[in-house]
Amino acid sequence: MSHPIAPMIIRGEVITDNLIEVGGRGGDLTFLTPDANRYIDRLPLGNPTRLADLYKLSFDDILDYAVALGERLAFSKNAYLQEACELSYLTAPTTPTIVKASYMGLQNLLSREVITEMVESSVGVNYLEGWVRQKLLDGTELEVRCFGARTLHIVAGNAVALSLWTIIRNMVLRSDAIIKAPSNDPFTAAAIARTMVDMAPDHPLTRHLSVAYWKGGDQAFEQRLYQPQNLEKIVAWGGFASMKHVTQYIQPGLELISLDPKRSASIIGKGTFESEASMREAAVRLASDIGAINQKGCVCARTIYVQSGTDEQGLEKLNTFGRYVYDAMLTLPNSISTAPKRYDQNLKAHVDALRLDDEWYKVIGGLAGEGAIICSQIPEPVPFSTLLDDRTANLVPVDELNEMLDAVDAYTQTVGVYPESIKDQLKDVLPLHGAQRIVSLGYAAAMKFAAPQDSIEPLRRMGKWISNQIASPETTPAPWLRPSL
Amino acid sequence: MTRTIDEKVELLLTDPVALVEHSYEKWNQLPRDEVDALQLAAAKRRFAEMRDRIPVLKKLADAEAIDRVEQVEDLVPLLFEHTVFKSYPPSLLEKNNFTAINKWLCKLVIPEIAEAIQAVDVSGCQGLDEWFETMDEAVPQLCISHTSGTSGTLSFLPLSNREFEKAVKVRRLYAWRMNGPETPAPDMHSVYPYYRKGYLSHMRGNMAIMKTVLPSLDNFHPAYPATLSSDVLHLGAKVRAAHAKGTLDRLVISPELMAKKKAFDQLQADMPGHLAAFFEEMTARLKGKVVYIGGTWNLLHNMAKAGLERGLEGVFHPDSFIATTGGAKGVVQPQGWREDVLRFTGARKIFETYAMSETPSGSHALCEHGNYHFSHTAIPFVLDPETGKALPRKGRQTGRAAFFDLGADLRWGGFITGDEITVEWDKPCACGRPSRYVEGAIQRYSDKNGGDDKITCAASEQSHREAMDFLNTLEL
């Protein structure tokens, strides 16, 4: 059987020559892709003045392009996407229905209003369109503008939409992007790029996107590409090891924008237990935060602190709630959650061990690898809390709200809170402990790109902020006119 | 002497060296078919004895609806994962709640031992070292050992002194080159390049070996006279875990632990003196003698390097017995470490085995053809790493190693390792031993997958050092 090809796209050109075989670990798909070493000199933009063509476009032109691309990314009509989707079933960490739903949703990201909202709330359209002028106290006229940059994007492979978000961010900033496709999603970015090539082969936005796959950790290759004369910024998503790996190339002139490995937690307040209805509601919302994209996202809840109380009555409430959460998880729509693709065997060993001794932890479900809810019977998380994955979450009972702060540390991204009424008590304290995003319970997976991300603002940081000072001795005190001492 | 099958099974379980009339030649030549038949019968007996008497086993057997063992594969669903030995809440150790730890431990052992454990008052123990000491004294049948995990949680293994004794008698066959019960006991000495005592599983095994192979414990010559503190090792594991989680600032250090650190600093200061005395003892009193040296490869190598730097070579008698648990498993061993050890000690070869803390009877000896031959006292399994199901016991199979340790007499001996092995079930080894064997390198699955949840025996020294480094930052 011949292996599928993940093509390389360099600035409008689709390359399928000089193929080498990659992948195939642990029964995964083996695919062919052009040997990046053969094209390394063509991948970087080289002279940055070549970004100038992007500045002939207005923001409106960019939106027009985005909308036209959106129409072409209609899943039912796009053969590239359909093919990439089929192949992604084999490489993705999630299951086919989730992958397909993500592909079907891609075109929705390319709406005029959504992109405008994202830019306005994070950068401001006028800073991208031209110089924004203000007058300073000393009379200086200050102009500030946000320029694009030559950027390498190391995209995460856990969610299909990340490639398209990267492309959109690149377009609005008038940047030049090289996307290093992840091994567990080698097809999506290329399928979008090919659609762009078909649509407008010579358009500057098409000409400033490249997509390639190379094996992360190829030091000779990376050492050559990751140089300030080729790139100004690296945007990296990923796990601890890959992030550590990238940092070795960072030097003056080459900036790292790091979307670190993150975990997420939830906080369930006392009010939840006031009625059966609110318990049920919280259970469904929590199930969604745990189960969305099969818990493969950093946004997904793993350790959940529950103010059920820790006495016998409290534990009974907790265990009932845990059962509700488990039941709700099993009935989530298959477009966001299914039984996991392959239940982590290391995690299973831990969960099964707890099952043999239920004095301190009660395990609900998990026998068939469908995911499990572990209810701690003491106010502390399971010792293996950092391994929680594949729809396995840990509910931890506490008496007081402030005990829940243990849930939050430097790696915490999202904290889902229920009921809404306790958020005001928490939202000024959680960030001190490390929390970076606070959401109404159930909305963890509804990531908003108009919001800051991972306590940074990637879109702002992906741009180069340039200032122009306009001054003369008539308007502004001049340095050379200062008196001598 | 002709024995019935039942008598032989009894011996395999209680006194395996008697089964081969105390001859290492006979041990090595035990026929395959006989081993298979005895092991199956022994496993049946163990399961029948323990099924309803060890609470955790009963729970697992109930869940799997297994009431009897017909063939060895029936044991596979009943093998314990390593996680079983650390399924207690870590806070119990923070709070020195050893009463609760003991209660947890009771579920892993037979009722007689559980009763003995319950009867011990450990409520006043101020740390792991004190707890181990108290338990050793109060329940002498038991030899609780620990391994150190990077997740910050220690595994506790309820091993028995009896099982160590049975296992090291097998080792003695080799060390004494025994050819029958009347083989004379040599006047063996032992040097040990580390602490006198410790509760880490591999150090526990060492002590048992000393008691069995040496005429007297006075013949045991450790480098440091102290006890390796398990409290400090535990801190090392916690520091590592907290580093990974970014919560180092939340670690609480007890005054007792700080006191241990002071004692260690003193030892550190006295170290040159201890080492000088250690090498002095070797060269002055033990030169040319037959010694037994057991230890992790890095300890052996460090000793050899230090000795060679002092200009010492061929210190002991060529018949000396040097034993180590081989297989680097993710650790890069320096080139030439074996040669250094042999040059320094003067021994002819190193006796290497593949072994793990959880199955002390499963010490699988390396032959001259580079294969690890399974010990008769442990039933090996190769499991599919994805499904956990047993792979066929024929041909060549690569998968996760698991064992049923027949030596385990007060706990359940079934255990799944984290190691990937390749077993040759049919083809006999060129060395002439009929037993089945592990071929090629042994790898940890966790290394293959990029993470590691267990510090191997050889790395405990590093864990200790990390803890000390951390304590040093506190004093500043």
From TrEMBL, chain A:
SUPFAM superfamilies in UniProt: ALDH-like
Biological processes per GO annotation: bioluminescence
Assigned keywords, A-Z: NADP
Record bears the keyword Iron: no
InterPro entries xref list: Ald_DH/histidinol_DH, CoA_reduct_LuxC
Top-level division of the source organism's lineage: Bacteria
Keyword presence, Phosphoprotein: no
Any one Gene Ontology molecular-function term assigned to this protein's record: acyl-CoA dehydrogenase activity
The name this protein goes by in its record: Long-chain-fatty-acyl-CoA reductase
Automatic annotation (TrEMBL), chain B:
Alphabetical list of Gene3D superfamilies matching this protein: N-terminal domain of ligase-like
Classification via InterPro entries: ANL_N_sf
Entry protein name: Acyl-protein synthetase LuxE domain-containing protein
